Every structure is written in C-alpha cells, then in structure tokens.
C-alpha cells in the first residue's frame, strides 16, 4: 500500500478555517480529482461533513470517535489504523484531511502531494504538519502563477520519503 497525503496549504501550513478551505484554486481541484479518482480516500468526520457531497468515483473512509456515526455508502472507522486496514493493501490510498488526520498520518505516509499556496493565512485554524527535510525529498515542483481564475501563485509539490 502506498499512503499519500494530499492537501493545499499556505506557506505557514494553513489549511482552512471553520472547516472550510481558505482559497478557491480550480487547477488544484482538477489535480486532486485526477490523482484521487478510482482510489480510497481517508478523511476525518469534519472533513467529510464539509464536502458538498460524495466525491465521485472514490471510496470514502471516515475516521470518527463517534461510536454511532453512520454515513451512507461510506466506510466508518474509529482510528487511522482501522482506516488503513479496510483499504486495498496493493493500491495507493489518499489521506485528504483534516489537520489532525494529516498529523497522525505523517509517520505512515509514503508520499505527499502538496499544493503550496504562496502567501500566508493568519486566520486559519487548521494546519498541515511541518515537512521534515531530513525525512522527505522534494521530488517535483511545478509552479503555477496567479491568473484570472487563481488569486494566488501556487506550486504543486511532490515529496517522497527518504
């Protein structure tokens, strides 16, 4: 199994505020869809609740401490360890948030697909964990300047474990 964290985070690692993303980057959404389609996506309950609905062509695995939580057409578990066990062991699975789930997942991740949004967000209340350069190698970086559809410059960064 390859465990990949996928996120969009500002230079100060800000992910979102009040369970919502801070920016709207259509090319980031396209990349997210392209990379995660056909795969299992693991997320915390708050992240699932923030989605506009089911993400098409993906199997949703929701981690929650709530013992009686149910979500139609989703797999509900109570820990990251359980989430990883219910996923196919010979495929890439994606951790899609939120901040607490990313933090728990860093130790088991093989890859990080990060959209680094250039700028900071002081009002954020959820953050991506620090990427330790002694444990991760930046394998690829593709810069995307701001334009009429994107209010921020950003870079698609792919990290792999050393």
UniProtKB/TrEMBL annotation:
SUPFAM superfamilies: Dihydrofolate reductase-like. InterPro entries: DHFR, DHFR-like_dom_sf, DHFR_dom. It comes from the Bacteria. Residues 2-161 form the DHFR domain. The keyword Membrane does not apply. Pathway: Cofactor biosynthesis; tetrahydrofolate biosynthesis; 5,6,7,8-tetrahydrofolate from 7,8-dihydrofolate: step 1/1. Signal peptide: none annotated. GO terms for cellular component: cytosol. The keyword Oxidoreductase applies. GO terms for biological process: dihydrofolate metabolic process; folic acid metabolic process; one-carbon metabolic process; tetrahydrofolate biosynthetic process. One of its GO terms (molecular function) is NADP+ binding. PANTHER family: DIHYDROFOLATE REDUCTASE. Key enzyme in folate metabolism. Catalyzes an essential reaction for de novo glycine and purine synthesis, and for DNA precursor synthesis. This is Dihydrofolate reductase.
């Amino acid at each position: 199994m390859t465990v990949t964290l996928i996120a969009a985070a500002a230079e100060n690692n800000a992910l979102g505020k009040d369970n919502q993303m801070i920016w709207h980057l259509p090319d980031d959404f396209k990349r997210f869809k392209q990379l995660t389609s056909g795969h299992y996506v693991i997320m915390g309950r708050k992240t699932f609740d923030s989605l506009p609905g089911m993400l098409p062509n993906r199997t949703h695995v929701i981690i929650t401490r709530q013992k009686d939580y149910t979500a139609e057409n989703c797999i509900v578990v109570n820990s990251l360890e359980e989430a990883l066990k219910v996923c196919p062991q010979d495929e890439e699975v994606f951790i899609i948030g939120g901040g607490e789930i990313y933090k728990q997942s860093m130790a088991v991740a093989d890859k990080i697909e990060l959209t680094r949004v250039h700028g900071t967000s002081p009002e954020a209340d959820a953050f991506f964990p620090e990427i330790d350069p002694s444990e991760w190698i930046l394998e690829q970086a593709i810069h995307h300047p701001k334009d009429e559809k994107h209010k921020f410059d950003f870079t698609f960064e792919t990290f792999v474990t050393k």
